Amino acid sequence: MKHPEMPYERFLAYGAKSLTDAELLAVILRTGTAQMSATELAGQVLSLRESTNQSLSVLYDLTMADLKGIRGIGEVKAVKILCLSELAGRMQQGLKERSLQFSRPQTVADYYMETMRHLEQEQVLLLLLDSRLALIREQILSIGTANMAVLSPRDVFRNALKDSAVFVMLLHNHPSGNPAPSDEDIELTKRIASAGRMLELELIDHIIIGNRRFVSMKEAGYLK
Asked: Is the pTM of this model over 0.90?
């Protein structure tokens, strides 16, 4: 029996798991160019970042300009690829949300990791929680420069009191990829925790997101 060569036909014959990453992307692209097949074109997309070794994870980092720089990728194909990346990210977030527990730093870091680790500036995210540690609302408090986020403790507790929160949690990213807390991070965390105790609003954690790594200020002993 002759094995089907085209990715679409192979999918019909053997299912999605029989396809390589490039072949899966080729099904989305549908066509290649006069000089290369859709699978070869997909391979070029996956090779845009040398360190990824043709991994689908490269799609998270690509821009419209990156994609349109490849001969054979026009606006339509670029939009399809970017939408595919966003769809995959939202599916991943949905799966993580089911296991998200705000009392466990690992689950919180896992949930926000892909959103925050790619940011080029520091961003501070406030999570407002009720008495059962259920999320009331999340809010971006500040967006800083490449190495600093400006944050006032007043901003934290004004929002918490407005939404009748009982607990608060902070997250921020380090664009360097290293989540080790700076002296400023530690001092600010202690100030917010101290102010929260006076207002009977507990800061349950401050999580710093790096590149696939995180630091929980609570686990590190800064929120005794």
From this structure: no
